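new request in #modeling-help
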Amino acid sequence: MSGDWISVRLADKRLVAEDVAALLLEPADGTALPPFAAGAHVDVELPGGLVRQYSLCNAPGDPGRYELGVLLDRQGRGGSRAVHEQLAVGQAIRIGRPRNLFPLVPAEHSVLLAGGIGITPILAMAEQLAADGAGFELHYFVRSPERAAFVDRLAAPRFGDRCRLHVGDRIPPSFDAPALFDAPRAGHHLYVCGPNAFMDAVLDGARAGGWPDDRLHSERFAAAALPAGDDRPFEIEVEGSGAIVAVAPGQSAAEALAAAGICIPLSCEQGICGTCLTTVVGGVPDHRDSYLSDAERAANDCFTPCCSRAATPRLVIQL
Amino acid sequence: MFVRNAWYCAGWDEAVGIGANDLVVRQIAGRSILLYRTGEGRLVAMEDRCPHRSAPLSLGRKEGDAIRCMYHGMLFGPDGACRQVPGMDRIPEGAVAATLPVVEKDNWIWVWLGDPARADPELICFAIGPSDPDWVLRTSHLRVDTGYREEIANLADLSHVSWVHGLTFAGSDDWGYIKPRHRLNPRGIETRYCVRGVPAPAFARHLFADDARFDINVHVRMTVPCNFILSFAVHEAEAGGAPNEPSRGKLLLDTFSSQAVTPRDAGSVDYYFSWGTSRETNFPGIVDLMHRTNMDAFLEDKRILEGQRARLLQYPGAPQVDIVHDAGPGRMLWVLDQLLAEEAAEAGAA
């Protein structure tokens, strides 16, 4: 983990919607928790040694505590099940320092779109924007009313009528997509978080309507379901070409290579299919895929750049 | 949906003769292509559509090296230019049937759908044809009602051999556990591996002792749109040996299969294939048995691919899960998609 672990106590845990648990974390030793900005997440160490990332959803100005929302994924890799089934109020757990890959930028007006559990960072953003008196609107998409979490907070007077709930599959008709997507106004920024299919629908719609990429902000929480590790920056050297590509935290090796004009074949982008498998001739990969067997990992001669990183400052690859 | 600048296989050369009625129409990537031979045996590939009122030229009549549309009698030369409009002295402008570059190689007919200036015969996939003196090969043809992307995914991942071809090609479920590395080429992928220590395949089980074990050296070259060139060499099983190293056991049967899958349209393909042995390792009866088995096996593929197509149409856009065997399909489809994107960008810039 980057930085030190912080010891916290689970002060409260309750279901706030079908399969959604809200966790309230307070410092174990009475010292203040580090401040955070809207959109930030923390690593949470769970029973069984799992580490998962969850967004902070309370108001960033809220002193001394962190609030998380965790959706139970019965088909998942066990992190959310550990939260729902094993964590008990009063229990001591460890978390990482807040990190933010999904920050708000100053804007005349912010459009916040949340799908399902993607509401968590979006809610913190709404709190921040409301506290700042900034212009915004929030649209929250859920498959059924029972799955809408934090509805009491969204109905609070401080938000006025700026939060709208949309119930249905993907993007239901109650949401006026053309009005929002088809005429991007100068100074407007759009933020989206949710399941991949939802985010793709939103981002495709917005791009088709003319939204420039630099005013579209998104965070995919599917990536957070990958085995956690230290998202340190590293370098990739392409053997024989002299190219050295920097991979930033939060950026995949394949994305960094593509940005440098080196296209690797991609398909699932989750470390399952092996389409992107790339030969490694130097350095040690930090494997985060489920494609390679333990023996193949031990051979240290390839990695999946769609999701895997480096345990050494530099990887040398062969194309 | 289809790469334009590519050679598409239009079948075996023997399918297009020089007889009066040898007017062969192929559906290729959404187009109807007429194939015929001139008196000298030279192949002509022409859009099967009269430029007058779109009647199929394949319903026409061969006259020397030309073809006459049997709707209003217009006569077109092998270059597509109209030579005669009965009842009219001057040939109207635009009275030209579109022709396509066509090449015969390895007993296959190849047509180029894109810009004729870029029709480089070097881009035709490597193959071994049935007239090659070093090989004993038999050929066949099958239509499958599936998309060619599904065919690509079928051929780029031979783990399905264990499950689809349990009564023909497979002798065990070992194919389902191989995890090959696929090398990327500008127009396809190349894959080599060895399936080790396997019993004889179902179709040849009776020819060997029950405990006989074999190593199979596999070398696959795939190119766009969906050509699959396979060297499949059966060796005596050697002790040890890694799956990514070729077997050095004694070579028993050296086999080769050239397969070209041509999309007819979005939902069907024409599959032209051969299989057989090297002259050196051939023995009486084996190629006949392989030939029959090959058709049986491809009917097994047809059954699963057509079932899959029915479900894909029934559940459009339903999510699909990836597994470890999708690397080959992922790479081959990626190559295809890169070429499609390049052509889309060119079309957009033009």
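bot summary: The radius of gyration of chain A is 20 Å.
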